Amino acid sequence: MTSGLRKTHRFIWITLGLLVSSLIALSTIATKKPLEIDKDFSVVSKHKTQRAVFEDAYFVINLNEKNELNNLEIILKKPLKSASSLVYGYSNNSKNLLGSIDTKGRYTFTIDKLTTSIAIYDEIKKTNIAKIKL
Amino acid sequence: MGVNYQTVLWNRNKKIYDRWIGLSMLIYLISFIGLTFITNVQTSVETLIIRAFGTLAIVLLHIILVIGPLSRINTRFLPLLYNRRHLGVSMFLAALIHGGFSLFQFHTLGNVNPIYALFSSNMDYNSLKNFPFQVLGFFALIILFLMAATSHDFWLKNLSAKSWKRLHMMVYFAYALIIMHVFLGSFQQQPSLWSTAILSFGFVVITALHISTGSKERKLDHIKTTDTNEGWDYVCDIDEIPEDRAKIFIVDNERIAVFKYNNKLSAISNVCKHQGGPLGEGKVVDGCVTCPWHGYQYLPHNGQSPPPFTEQVSTYRLKLIDKKVYVSPKALPEGTEVDPVIFNN
Ligand code: HEM
Ligand code: FES
User: Fold this and answer.
1) Which of A13, B115, B262, B273 could lock B311 by a disulfide, CB 3.0 to 4.6 Å apart?
2) Of residues B321 and A80, which shows the higher confidence score?
3) How far is CA B204 from the centre of its chain?
4) Cα→Cα distances B167→A66, B99, B147, B250, Å
5) Strand partners for A128
6) Are B265 and B344 in contact (CB under 8 A)?
């Protein structure tokens, strides 16, 4: 390598080291739920201000009401049988895709005040796994 | 086609290495799938393929990135450097399967073009939690594709060594994109202490090795000669150079290599025309200076590759006073014939 190329390499790696490690730190801090050891994780919500909506063998669903938008929290206690499950929000006459859930864990979705119920939908069998009023 | 290029020759060793690469990838995939079945039976086949190949690609990428600094630290790693290109292409193929399956699984359901869906299904670009991480993987995959597609020496010659090197240095950018793809993607969806710790460890090791070897090399670039004599720089005593090997020396901030062979001394640029390998760390084999990285050869007295090859590097004039070797710091045009200094033991 020429000395210029060596300089460029060093510059790139120092920049990469600083930039990516800060981004790693920020993204780890922003992780949706506290890092837990694989397998066992808490099903108790972190937020105190929210309302419990539903609980069964698979789901714990909580709603956190805020000024403009609500936060929907779905905790999946064990993996669903369906390979691909989508979450839909329903308001008066519309249906919105909120996102997907797969392995167990905590999922949060932002929904508007008009959303009155949600459905968890098995995309492959094309059936609802659960339909829940908020 | 009118472009001449010199291939890095196929040989038995290269084929053995390739077999090892293939076998190791296979063992990795089988173990990954086996372990997933043992520990978490409910994963779908698509998800399993996505994860097995995604993690395989990132493991390979770490191996690829560690080979460079390791072979600076210890020459025993040089055979890996020689075969790094095939690892690179294998890594791209693994990443392609991962990315392809993800696109297929997550974006072919709607009626829009899957690539468009990849960019538009999640527009949370200013959130770390919900960042559209697949976009980062997509750009990384494009870079890896360009690198794999131009990995043949034909392209090295055709694009010029400089642009080729620039293109292939994009791998560092791709690496950053991939790290963020994983941290903002699967680690956000399913935080796991172990995976986070392992990947962070990998990143720290790779970065620290690159920065530390790079800094060591840069210090060497600043070593100045202790003694100049009417425009000639003192290099070293003749006994300091082992037979068929070189002493590396700095003139004008660039490295040159002073070779001792057959009772002769010759000096050429230290920078190989192929990919900038350090010629002065190579050996004289069959009368030719042989690059330690991929084996390009140059004649020591004129810096030319033996026919039919056409590479040329700069040469330098030397003189010997008693046992002291001196070099004239002015580089002669590439391929200039210089009579070797002849000495008697
Ligand atoms: C078009 C490009 C890409 C797309 C659409 C894509 C998509 C995805 C998705 C959806 C996941 C989460 C999978 C899950 O956990 O269920 C993921 C994870 C991951 N991706 Fe990619 N990816 C792309 C390119 C890449 C590339 C180029 C690499 C590395 C060489 C890579 C490495 C990984 C790794 C290591 C993971 C974490 C392990 C895993 O969960 O699979 N991806 N990617
Ligand atoms: S042979 Fe590849 S860098 Fe010299």
Assistant:
1) B273
2) B321
3) 19
4) 49, 21, 7, 28
5) A121
6) no
HSE at residue A118, side-chain half, CA atoms within 13 A, is 26
Question: ipTM of the assembly?
Answer: 0.85
CB-based contact A17:B211 (threshold 8 Å): yes
Which ligand gives the minimal distance to the CA of B99?
A: 1
In this structure, what token pair is assigned to residue B259? 């070779």
A103: which chain B residues are within 8 Å (Cβ-Cβ)? 40, 43, 190
Distance (Å, whole) CA B157 – CA B162 = 10
A6, B194: Cβ pair inside 8 Å?
Answer: no
Position B131 pLDDT exceeds 80: yes
The residue behind tokens 């590439």 is B334
Chain mean position to CA A112: 17
Is the separation of the CB atoms in A129 and A85 below 8 Å?
yes
Condensed to tens digits (0 to 9), the pLDDT of residues B16-48 reads: 888 999 999 999 999 999 998 887 666 778 888
B5 located within any domain: no
Residue after which a domain boundary falls, among B166, B201, B220: B220
User: Residue B62 is inside which H or E element, if any?
Assistant: helix B45-73
- The domain tally of chain B equals 2
Q: Which residues contact A30 (CB under 8 A, 6 or more apart)?
A: B128, B129, B188
Residue B148 CA to residue A112 CA, distance in Å, equals: 46
CA distance A101 to A106: 9
Give B167's contacts (C-beta < 8 A, 6+ positions apart).
B146, B147, B150, B159
> Which chain B residues are closer than 8 Å to A32 by Cβ?
129, 188, 191
Q: What total of structural domains would you count in chain A? A: 2
Strand, coil or helix: what is B271?
strand
- A14 and A59 share a domain? no
